[in-house]
Prior knowledge:
Elements: H1 2-17, E1 43-56, E2 59-60, E3 62-63, E4 66-67, E5 71-80, E6 85-100, E7 109-125, H2 126-130, E8 141-160, E9 169-173, E10 180-191, E11 196-206, E12 234-246, H3 258-272, H4 346-357, H5 374-385, E13 393-398, H6 405-425, E14 433-439, H7 456-462, E15 464-469
Helix pairs in contact: 4-5, 5-6
Amino acid sequence: MKKKLFLLFLLPFLGFAQTKENNSNSEIKTEPFNNKSRLFKDWSISVGGGGAFMAHADLTSFYDGKVNWGWNGYVSLDKQITHVLGVSLLYTKGETNQKARLNNLAGVGHGYTKFDQIALIGDVNFSNLMRRVDNKSNYRWALHGYGGIGFTGYKTYLQDNAVLSKWPLEIEQKIGISTFSYIGGVGLKYNISRLLDIELRTLYLISGDEEFDGGGWTRTDTGYNEINDSYTDNAWLVNLGLSFKLGKHPDHLRWVDPLQGAYAKAAVLEEEFKDFNICDKGDLDNDAVCDDWDRQLDTPAGARVDGAGVALDLDLDGVIDLNDKCTTVPGPVENQGCPTEKAMPVSNNIEEINKHFNGIEFELNKDVIRPESFKDLNQAADIIKSLRATDSFIVVGATDSRGSAAYNKKLSQARANAVLNYLVDKGVSRSVLTAEGRGKEDLKYTECDPATKCPEWKNEANRRVYFVAK
């Protein structure tokens, strides 16, 4: 409490401290919020490259325990929107090498795919998102997640030495609206300097095309597209890249945590002003209200106070909240601020119990109580346990007029027994309760016999369990 009041008192001084200069009339000069007033770099250019593999396709870069390596390179223009979110315009060019995997085709069909992709991807800085705001240490590693959409053009080549008459097969798909694709992945960045980052990144490219691996235009024209049931061929890219951070500012926004900076500045100010005493005559009861305007100089330790230093008493019952066991309900001092319970007539108690019995739900045509009714039954049990042990009560079960009298009698008895057993499990004495199933002999709405004469809400009201005095 004292710390918060201290910081509140300092706010005007902090405002002056952040002002560069004052004129002769003591007016604070401010700078407009424009491009020049930015504190951090937020643009960068990234380049990199690495391996490319046809991962999930009919012809794949992984077969017989071997890896058929390909390559890829990329360049992107990156914009950091906040310290957590960014966006990049990405161009990727690469080539994959792949072969068929089935025993009767292994080593026969092989080829490659040259591809170009233009994509717009979002960037989430998980390290900034999950970082503790009170962590004062500098950090140089950050985990990023990527996801976006793009357009992918490609040219494939497929060679099958066993069938020279129709091979090689070439397929070309130029970048266009029909080449819509998805891309996503993760990366680990390291902050080398104020101008340069390095990143190890892996991305997964979902082409949406059956032809991306070169297996043919259709599933049957070459036979290779029948190897895998999927109609999309996907590539896996693994890259090592560099990000060149643009701008004159000392830090890039992706390496900044604004809350961390605010906490650090507050800690410095607190240290500078820790010995500053704002109370001329002190604070005798240590309640953060100076004795000069404290109307209660002997406030108990730990009590919440108002602006005049008076201990709070929310329900105005003469017992301060610190010592009040019922802070929102008035009660006498001798009962620690809680109201004294008065015995209620049996009829009133039964009416209160039936409020919690109203709407008790069971499984269809069963005596199993549904969990959503447990709360109401628990409250009813608490009321029953507070009554005199000499009182006796009946748990009555009733149904609507559908079905035979014998079936309804049996079902209502079983449900009354289920409620009785539940109340006993919650501490109610079995000696004060009796279960009685009345079936359709005890209709709340007697005009509902047969049930077709009434709307469904009346029939539902007839299917009930309620409480009466014995």
